[in-house]
Design goal:
The protein is mainly beta. The protein is about 5% helix and about 40% strand. It has a single domain, classed as Domain of unknown function (DUF427) (Metal Binding Protein, Guanine Nucleotide Exchange Factor, Chain A). It has a 7-stranded antiparallel sheet, with no helix packed on it.
Amino acid sequence: MTDDVSEPSPGFAKNPDYRIVLERPEREFVAALHGETIARSNRAIILREGDYPPLVYFPPEDVRLDQAAMTDKDTYCPYKGMASYWSFGTEANLAWSYEEPFTEMLDIKGYVSFYMDRLDDPVI
């Protein structure tokens, strides 16, 4: 996806062989919570990283952010950058996004991913 990497992120600088693979499958993904669809897209990105389960990142315009509230939680990934979190209803910090990711991960900038085990059904 994005190939222009001028300075590697701290993670890739330390571990240049580490791989995060981004894919754009041609299918629709749906995220539902308590019987309501909160994200639906045929433009989602699958992120595969190491031994972790794959994650679906939804374009923000395909997520019901009108039903979400950004929280004060954030986490840091040396490969992707600082993640911001979103709550949906009573589900605190259910989703996250990288608003200013490192150069290698610009393709997921602003995209929203969810904790799959907290949704109604697995997205993948």
